[in-house]
Design a protein that fits this description.
By secondary structure, the chain is an alpha+beta fold. It contains six helices and 13 strands. Strand 6 and strand 7 form a beta hairpin.
Length: 242
C-alpha cells in the first residue's frame, strides 16, 4: 500500500525545514514496492532559486530502488514548474513533483521524454501511477493523443475529485478532442469511462474488447475487469475520441 498523504507530509516537512533553500530528493519504490522519500543535498550554487542533485549522490541514493520522480520545493514562487524545472525534468527523463511554500500546493510535471511504463500490472502510486495517469498513458502509447502539460497532482475531497482537479480533467478532454457519448450502452473499444461515487466521478478506465475495462484502482495492480452490473451502475459518463 502506498500512503501518499504520508509521502506529501514528508516532502512538506523537508521543504519547511530547509525553508531558506530549495530542498530536493527522490520518490522511489523499494524491492517490496513500498513508496519512499529519500532526501538529497541541493548542490546548486544558487539554492534559493534552483536545485541540483549530483550524479554521484543520485547513484548512491537510488541503489536498489526504482526512482519514480524527483521532488523539490519552491521557496519564492508557487509550485508551478519554471522553465528551468522543465528543462531539468527532460534531462533527468523523470517527472518533477514540486511543493510550493508560498501557495502550499503540489504540482506534478511529466517531461516529453518520460518513458511510459508497461500498462500491465503497474504498482499504484497516487498521482504518478494512478487511474488518470493510466488512461493518459494508454492513449499516448496507442498514438491517439499527443504530449500535453498538465498538473497531474490531483486532489480529492473524500472519494470525489476537487473542483480544481475537475477543471484539469475538463481541459484534458477538450485539448484531446474527446466527445461525450450519451448512450452508455453503445460502448466501443478505446472509449474513456468515468466512474462515480455518490454522483461524482472518482475513477477512470478504458473500454476494451470482450466487455472489459482496463483500469488502475488504488492499492491494486493495473488490470482488466469484466464489466458486470456493479460496474454498469457506477458509470458516470463515457467519452470517445473524435
Amino acid at each position: 500500500m502506498c500512503d501518499f498523504n504520508f509521502i506529501q507530509k514528508l516532502i512538506k516537512a523537508h521543504a519547511e525545514h530547509e525553508s531558506e533553500n530549495e530542498c530536493c530528493g527522490l520518490i522511489a519504490l523499494n524491492t517490496f514496492q513500498e513508496l519512499q522519500v529519500i532526501p538529497c543535498e541541493n548542490t546548486h550554487f544558487d539554492k534559493e532559486n534552483f536545485f541540483e542533485i549530483s550524479p554521484k549522490s543520485y547513484l548512491e541514493k537510488s541503489r536498489n530502488l526504482q526512482v519514480c520522480s524527483i521532488y523539490h520545493s519552491h521557496i519564492i514562487s508557487s509550485s508551478t514548474p519554471s522553465k528551468y524545472d522543465k528543462i531539468s525534468s527532460e534531462n533527468w527523463c523523470l517527472p518533477f513533483y514540486i511543493y510550493g511554500l508560498q501557495d502550499k500546493s503540489f504540482y506534478l510535471h511529466f517531461p516529453k521524454n518520460y518513458k511510459i511504463p508497461e500498462l500491465e500490472a503497474r504498482t499504484y502510486i497516487p498521482d504518478i501511477q494512478n487511474c488518470f495517469r493510466f488512461v493518459v498513458d494508454y492513449y499516448l502509447l496507442k498514438g491517439y493523443i499527443k504530449y500535453f502539460d498538465l498538473n497531474f497532482a490531483l486532489t480529492k475531497n473524500g472519494q470525489a475529485y476537487s473542483k480544481d482537479t475537475v477543471e484539469v480533467i475538463k481541459k484534458f478532454l477538450k485539448v484531446n478532442k474527446f466527445k461525450k457519448i450519451h448512450n452508455k450502452d453503445e460502448l466501443q473499444e478505446h472509449d474513456l469511462i468515468l466512474f462515480e461515487i455518490d454522483g461524482l466521478f472518482s475513477h477512470f478506465g478504458v473500454f476494451c474488447e470482450n466487455d472489459e475495462v482496463w483500469h488502475h484502482e488504488g492499492n491494486f495492480l493495473s488490470r482488466r475487469s469484466h464489466i458486470n452490473e456493479e460496474f454498469n451502475d457506477r458509470v458516470h459518463s463515457v467519452y470517445r475520441l473524435i
